[in-house]
Design a protein that fits this description.
By secondary structure, this protein is α+β, with helices and mostly antiparallel strands. It contains 1 helix and 2 strands; from the N terminus they run αββ. GO terms for molecular function: protein histidine kinase activity.
């Protein structure tokens, strides 16, 4: 596993406020990004999908439901 890979058992923790993994613990940021994304997605009935990225890390996709205009 590369240093930028996220262990599958740690993915859910990343959606909790102030959670950071690996080298991100010493960098900038508060660890709020994904918890905010999750709250916005929930408020709009959107879904979140998290999959490992080919070069390490994660790809997070937010899919909002279509609305009739």
């Amino acid at each position: 596993m590369a240093s930028s890979d996220v262990p599958p058992d740690a993915v859910e923790r990343l959606y909790q406020p102030f959670q950071r993994l690996g080298t991100a613990r010493t960098g900038e940021g508060l660890g709020l990004g994904l918890s905010i994304v999750q709250a916005v997605a929930a408020a709009h009935d959107a879904t979140l999908t998290t999959v490992p990225a080919p070069c390490g890390g994660l790809t997070v996709t937010v899919a909002f439901p279509a609305v009739d205009l």
